[in-house]
Design a protein that fits this description.
7 helices, 15 strands, single chain, five-stranded parallel beta sheet, five-stranded antiparallel beta sheet, Rossmann fold, OB fold (Dihydrolipoamide Acetyltransferase, E2P)
């Protein structure tokens, strides 16, 4: 089960440790602590976090707003500023980086938890607002989040082998488990990168990079040992795509 990872950029050691403990108790995965901008950028590249808790005044004269600007230019990532700076000028500068929240120190645990939960819920697969544009919203482009019981779990897009419609649900199959979401196949297709996924049947969509063989006689695409139906309506377009990939 993939936990949502949170990077902490905070120059006060005691407060950084407290945030780490709180993140762990909330059921998330701390992906490291940095007290300066250089280490913060290094951990961002190394850990690829899902969310960042960011102070503004950092060690070595660093600035969290500047760091956030650089991070957003590399890979749009949800950032929650946690700072003692509440003046309008600092807030306006921070707002230009499009953070998902701006919290004043000290932050109560309950408020922090609810803020993180709201951010994570906006990243969730069931949020219709995320259907509008794969590359311009808070949806992280190489992963998304599926609700499993009372929590959201991270699913890497590249790990999905195929999708199957089952009644009013879509089942996402990876090499290690199955995820079920209450969503129409077309709505789900709008969430997946077009260059990687393609519908092969009215009830199936496949990750083209996972296809290892094709049986034209049986009308099946094989992903591992699983035969995914190839409908007549989709055959020509699928064949063209497979030829292109070859």
């Amino acid at each position: 089960m993939a936990k949502i990872s949170i990077l902490i950029v905070e120059d006060e050691p005691l407060y950084a440790d407290l945030l780490q403990i709180q993140v762990e108790e909330m059921g998330y995965e701390p992906s490291g602590i940095a007290d300066n901008a250089l280490d913060g950028m290094s951990l961002f590249h190394e850990k690829q976090p899902d969310l960042i808790l960011m102070d503004i005044n950092l060690a070595d004269g660093g600035n969290g707003i500047t760091l956030a600007t650089k991070i957003q230019s590399i890979r749009p990532t949800p950032i929650i500023f946690i700072t003692s700076l509440v003046d309008d000028d600092t807030f306006q500068k921070a707002a230009k980086t499009l953070p998902v929240a701006y919290l004043e120190k000290p932050v109560r645990v309950r408020k922090l938890q609810r803020t993180i939960e709201l951010v994570v819920s906006r990243l969730g697969l069931g949020n219709e607002d995320n259907n509008k544009d794969w590359g311009k919203d808070l949806l992280i482009q190489d992963r998304f989040f599926v609700k499993v019981r009372n929590r959201l779990e991270k699913v890497e897009v590249k790990s999905i082998d195929y999708v199957e419609v089952e009644n009013r649900y879509c089942s996402l199959f990876t090499d290690h488990r199955k995820y079920v979401v209450r969503m129409a196949l077309q709505d789900l297709a709008n969430k997946l990168p077009q260059h990687l996924f393609m519908q092969t049947h009215r009830s199936f969509m496949v990750n083209l990079e996972k296809v290892n063989s094709l049986d034209l006689g049986e009308g099946l695409l094989y992903v591992g040992e699983k035969g995914v139906p190839l409908g007549k309506t989709y055959k020509d377009s699928v064949m063209k795509r497979l030829n292109y990939l070859a």
